[in-house]
Specification:
Elements: E1 9-12, E2 24-29, H1 36-45, H2 73-90, E3 93-97, H3 105-108, E4 115-121, H4 124-130, H5 136-160, E5 164-168, H6 169-174, H7 176-187, H8 196-202
Parallel strand pairs: 2-3, 2-4, 4-5
Antiparallel strand pairs: 1-5
Length: 212
C-alpha cells in the first residue's frame, strides 16, 4: 500500500462510489494556475472523455464561462443542463476541467450522473508568484484570494457528499506513477500498459496537449 505520509492524494466519500461499470462524471477543479491542467491530463490519459479538440489547458469551452464573453454567467449556467444531457447520451464516463467550477458546480450537481470530484491543491506561494503581483499589496491580495478559493472548494466538496479525491499538485508531480495509480483506483479505471506518454505529459514545464 502507498505510504500515507508521502501520498500525492487523499480520498473521501468512497462508500458513495458507483459500481465500476456504471456511468459517472468527473469534475476537476481547484484554483487558476493551481496544477489542474496536469491532473486533468492524467484523467484524460486514463480514458475519460474531457472534451473535443481540447486546448492545451484542457478546458472544455462548454464548461468554461470565460470563453464566450457574450454570455452572462446566468445564461451560461442555464445552458449547462442541456450540455450535460448531450454528454450523458454520448459517453458512459466523461468529465471536464475548469479551475473555478465552484462558480456553478453546486447548481448542476444533481444533473450529473454519479459525480466524482477531483480537487487540486497547490502551495499558494509559488502559485502567487506565477500570478506576478505588482507590489506588496497585490501579493497579499492574491494570497488571500487563493486561500478563499481553496476554502470554498473544500466546503463544496464536503456539502456534495460524493466521492472526492484531493490532490497535492507538488506531490503528484514528484511522484507521477504513484499518483496515476491512486487516480485510477479512485476512478475505478485501468491505467494504460505504457505510462511513458502520460508521464511525459505530467512533467513540469509548459502546457501540453493531453495524451490521446
Amino acid at each position: 500500500m502507498n505510504d500515507k505520509k508521502t501520498s500525492p492524494s487523499l480520498s473521501t466519500g468512497l462508500r458513495n462510489r458507483a459500481q465500476a461499470d456504471t456511468p459517472r462524471t468527473v469534475v476537476c477543479f481547484g484554483t487558476p494556475r493551481g496544477g489542474t491542467s496536469m491532473v486533468a491530463g492524467a484523467i484524460a490519459g486514463l480514458g475519460v472523455f474531457m472534451g473535443t479538440d481540447l486546448p492545451k489547458n484542457i478546458e472544455d469551452p462548454m464548461f468554461n464561462p470565460d470563453v464566450d464573453k457574450s454570455l452572462s454567467i446566468e445564461d451560461f449556467k442555464a445552458r449547462l443542463p442541456s450540455v450535460i444531457a448531450q454528454r450523458n447520451n454520448m459517453h458512459r464516463i466523461w468529465g471536464w476541467k475548469y479551475p473555478r467550477a465552484n462558480r456553478y458546480l453546486e447548481e448542476i450537481l444533481s444533473d450529473l450522473r454519479n459525480p466524482y470530484l477531483v480537487l487540486v491543491y497547490r502551495d499558494p506561494v509559488p502559485a502567487t508568484v506565477r500570478a506576478q503581483p505588482e507590489d506588496d499589496r497585490a501579493v497579499f491580495r492574491e494570497l488571500r484570494r487563493r486561500l478563499r478559493m481553496d476554502m470554498d472548494n473544500l466546503q463544496i466538496a464536503q456539502r456534495a457528499k460524493c466521492p472526492t479525491l484531493m490532490v497535492s499538485y507538488e506531490r503528484a508531480s514528484k511522484k507521477p506513477k504513484e499518483f496515476i495509480a491512486q487516480l485510477a483506483e479512485f476512478l475505478q479505471l485501468t491505467p494504460p500498459d505504457d505510462l511513458g506518454p502520460l508521464l511525459a505529459f505530467m512533467e513540469p514545464g509548459s502546457y501540453k496537449l493531453p495524451v490521446a
